[in-house]
Amino acid sequence: MGGSSSELEKPVNISEQTELPNGSMVTDVTVPPAFVTEDHFIANWFLWKDKFLAYLKKIDKAEDKKQLWGIMLLNRMGPVGQEIHRTFPFYDKNAQEDINVLIKKFDIYCMYRNEKRGCKDINRYTSDLIFIAVTWNHVDPTGIVKEKIIQDISTQRFTGNAALLIESKGEKLISYLQSLSLNEIILYWKLCEDLIA
Fold it and tell me: Are 107 and 138 in contact (CB under 8 A)?
């Protein structure tokens, strides 16, 4: 890790035509440079992600090494990305290096890093999350909001009967919540809140 920052940011070019995740075609694929600051991450994440995924699809067309893509992502993001990664709650230890899980976590961080529910009504908070996802042109606003709310529920400290309801699901809480629609998750969260009161 003792190299200079210019070593971290050496671009790697691959020539051929490649389709980006957004459907556009490019001839040269360049691996994006490591993030320099958190602000750099926030400003560039979505474009950076598209370029990085295009690069991965170019070097591993058959996706034979897809299980390594998450590690490659973290390495390429550099210290800033790795520091952000350390803040993520993971429900499954195996998911810490899963490219699909990591992409969702970084999307959530980029869009919602300062968004907390606080004293907001659950419906208002959910509407705010959807608005943010749509503003960012996220490909799946409902899905990303669902993941954000599951993350919020899993890290919230419930007491009394709400804690008993949460604990009744045990280790299956996350998979249970993931099986629900967004509206069902919101109703479950409201039920937990009502049980606290």
Answer: yes
Asked whether residue 82 carries a pLDDT value surpassing 80, the answer given is yes
Non-local CB neighbours of 64 within 8 Å, separated by 6+ positions: none
The SS3 assignment for 10 reads coil
Per-residue pLDDT reduced to its tens digit, 120-153: 899 999 999 999 999 999 999 999 999 999 999 9
Predicted local distance difference test score (pLDDT) of residue 86: 93
Domain ranges of the chain: 34-114, 115-196
Q: List the end-to-end C-alpha distance of the chain, in Å, as a whole number.
A: 51
Backbone angles phi, psi at 29, to 5 degrees: -115, 120
What's the token pair of residue 118?
Answer: 């606080």
- pTM for the whole structure: 0.79
Strands 13-19 and 25-30, sheet pairing = antiparallel
Alpha-carbon 108 to chain mean position: 4
What CA–CA distance (Å, rounded) separates 130 from 137?
A: 10
Q: What pLDDT was estimated at residue 92?
A: 81
- CA 177, CA 189: separation in Å to the nearest integer? 10
Q: Which of 74-104 are b and which e, b meaning 16 or more Cβ less than 10 Å from the residue's Cβ?
A: bebbbebbeebbeebebeeeeeebbbebbbb
Q: What is the mean pLDDT of residues 159-185?
A: 92
